[in-house]
Amino acid sequence: MPLDELIxxxxxxxxxxxxxxxxxxxxxxxxxxxxxxxxxxxxxxxFIGYFLIISPLFPIGLWRWWNEGRTIIIDKKGCLIKFLFYxxxxxxxxxxxxxxxxxxxxxxxxxxxxSAHAYDRPEDSSNCxxxxxxxxxxxxxxxxxxxxxxxxxxxxxxxxxxxxxxSIDKERFINKxxxxxxxxxxxxxxxxxxxxxxx
Length: 199
Hints:
This protein has 5 helices and 12 strands. By secondary structure, it is an alpha+beta fold.
């Protein structure tokens, strides 16, 4: 890796789990829809209708795969976002939101939210998932390694995934931002109810 760039991406263990989970949900939904269609002696159009009715969570799975599967290449001019065949480069002056946060999403990572939206900023709350879902192609996050609560799935039989999501060493990242004169907003906790104000 060149010294003048940072590469941020989820580790292989996490990506493998996310792909398996997303495809597993798709397969289960498809089987259920197929059974319903065959039982009713209906057509492909009915199969698609069933699929759309009973699979509201599948798009969220795809979004999480997109959000967590991207590679972010950061240099002194901006950030390149890559995912499969998709590529988009943002210059620093196009990223109007560059906000450090003590908690970002579901796993409460500490990190930085980047967005190209000047007049629509993340709310002062601990979780930015809704904001990232609202702006999937112009918003992304850089998480700090080890700065999150354990990643667990399931209640009765919990599964713990020892993986990192789009993360990088905090000190290394901050040092590069300072070296490249990239200014970051900060937010700080003002009470125990996860309320934040700009510092």
